[in-house]
Design goal:
Structural class: alpha+beta
Strand order of the largest sheet: 4-3-2-1-5
Distance between the termini: 78 Å
Radius of gyration: 29 Å
Strand content: 15-25%
Low-confidence stretches: none
Order of helices and strands: HEEEEE
Largest sheet: 5 strands, antiparallel
Helix content: 40-55%
Number of helices: 1
Number of domains: 2
Length: 112
């Protein structure tokens, strides 16, 4: 008879412990889900779009370099891009450091 109440107490404590564990983990899972859908997923989407833009760079495109220089692409390589910044002024830039590829006739977006 003494053993039966002891088992009853441990089984009740174990059931309450599982509920308490779920109650502690649920907010963490919810926070991770919010971070994923509001921060991580949109950033991955932007990175994928940016990578696709850089892969599609071709001769004649207008680009913005990482340093903020705007120029016209003269030559495209696997790794490098020759950019003409002005009449007779050409620079070689690493393709992955280009920040944007502008559409023809579009002005660069101003960051206010």
């Amino acid at each position: 008879m003494l053993i039966t109440p002891a088992f009853a107490q441990t089984s009740t404590a174990a059931a309450g412990g599982t509920g308490a564990l779920i109650a502690q983990i649920a907010p963490l899972v919810l926070i991770f889900a919010v971070f994923y859908f509001l921060l991580i997923r949109p950033q991955q989407k932007r990175m994928k779009e940016h990578k696709a833009k850089l892969e599609a760079v071709k001769k004649g495109d207008q680009v913005i370099t990482g340093g903020g220089l705007v120029g016209k692409v003269v030559r495209v390589d696997e790794v490098y891009v020759d950019v003409e910044l002005g009449q007779g002024l050409k620079v070689k830039a690493v393709k992955s450091t280009l920040s944007d590829v502008l559409t023809p006739g579009a002005l660069p977006a101003a960051n206010d």
